[in-house]
Amino acid sequence: MAKISAVNRNNHRAALAKRDKEKRTALKNIIKDRSLSVEDRFEATLKLAQMPRNGSATRVRLRCKLTGRPRANYRKFELCRIALRDLASAGQIPGMVKSSW
Q1: Which residues pair with 79 in a beta bridge?
Q2: Same domain for 65 and 52
Q3: How does pLDDT run across 3-32, given as a tens digit for each residue?
Q4: Domain residues for 1?
Q5: What is the DSSP letter of 75?
Q6: What are the φ/ψ torsions at residue 62 (nearest 5 degrees)?
Q7: Average pLDDT over every residue of 57-75
Q8: Residue 93 to residue 72: CA distance in whole angstroms
């Protein structure tokens, strides 16, 4: 199990990223727009830099929904490899069987 503080920190980052998504994309579109003046684009860059870093989607870590493990996660199931194997062996995941040859 992961530390609860790490999981809570990651959940807080996800909430901030969701909250700030529209504002960040608007500023990024202004920065990328070559038809605007350099001053306007630079001002948008400064505003983006002033926003909290934890509001960025890249700061959110993919963690296992059951254990909170930060590594070896499958995006499709939102589970780490260990939890996925346990659930698959127990028959909890439809269509997934343990391989044998």
Answers
A1: 74
A2: no
A3: 999 999 999 999 999 999 999 999 999 999
A4: 1-60
A5: T
A6: -75, 120
A7: 95
A8: 18
How big is the chain by its Cα radius of gyration, in Å?
Answer: 20
Residues 6+ apart with CB under 8 A from 62: 70, 73, 75, 78
Query: What token pair was written down for 87?
Result: 């659930």
In a domain, residue 100? The reply is: no
Burial class of residue 85 in the structure, from the number of CB atoms within 10 Å of its CB (0-12 exposed, 13-18 middle, 19+ buried): middle
- The H-assigned helical ranges of 1-101 are 4-32, 38-50, 81-89
Q: Are 83 and 66 in contact (CB under 8 A)?
A: yes
SS3 79: strand
Determine, yes or no, domain membership for 101: no
